[in-house]
Amino acid sequence: MAKYYDIDDILADEELVPAVFLEGVNGVGLLQSNETNRIEPRSKVELPFWLASELHLRQAASVNVPPCYNKKTREEIGADGAHVDLRSRCSYFYQLGCKIVQLIGDKTIGSLLLVAFQIRYKEVLIKAHTSASVLGPKFLSLLTKEETKLYDAAKSSTAAFKSWRMGGPRFQKASVLGRKRKPIGE
Q: Which residue in 1, 50, 59, 86 could disulfide with 13, CB within 3.0 to 4.6 Å?
């Protein structure tokens, strides 16, 4: 089940994936530019993931591996994964990959996601902890949405640690300790 209120999950479900219709379908001619308002069997279209997955579960269409997980991407990640522009291929590379693996069962996508994340995770944290206050937009433009969130979290934790180390509050009183309990008899 999708995370209903998570905007990133909604946007990941909107990514286009290639699909092939297994049956003829009436009333959906807007998916292709034709006059008949019908899609013939074995027609190839690109559909949002949410629609493709529903059609796949109903055995009306088969979902193919999206081009962002193709052999060229795998080779580039294997060669130098930290500098591959995954955002231009799919903004939600990891999130969509996890959903695609569950849908079509291609085990190689799971290993691709793992290798890509391991390589890029280290690079993102190194850049977040060692860069100056502003990092070049070139590096940030290569990151997916998930990696951008990770970078921001690492950057803020680094700033909080530096603030603490430079003489910030060493100990903070828990808010629970300041409250008094009500007597039982009242």
A: 50
Over pLDDT 70: what percentage of the chain?
A: 81
Average pLDDT over every residue of 74-102: 88
Give the span between the Cα atoms of 57 and 103, in whole angstroms: 8
Q: What gap in Å lies between CA 127 and CA 123, rounded to an integer? A: 6
Poorest-pLDDT segment among 9-13, 17-21, 30-34, 167-171? 30-34
Helices (H), the chain: 7-13, 49-57, 71-80, 93-104, 107-130, 137-140, 145-165, 175-178
Is the dihedral angle over the CA atoms 144, 147, 153, 156 positive or is it negative?
A: negative
Instruction: Describe the chain by its helix, strand, coil percentages, rounded to 5.
Output: 55, 10, 35
Q: Read off the pTM.
A: 0.75
Instruction: Quote the CA–CA distance of 136 and 151 in Å, as a whole number.
Output: 13
CA distance 2 to 110: 19
CB 17: neighbour CB atoms within 10 A?
26
On whether the CB atoms of residues 100 and 62 are closer than 8 A, the answer is no
Residue 41 has pLDDT above 80, yes or no: yes
The DSSP letter of residue 106 is -
The answer to whether 70 and 30 are in contact (CB under 8 A) is no
Main-chain phi, psi angles of 61, to 5 degrees: -150, 155
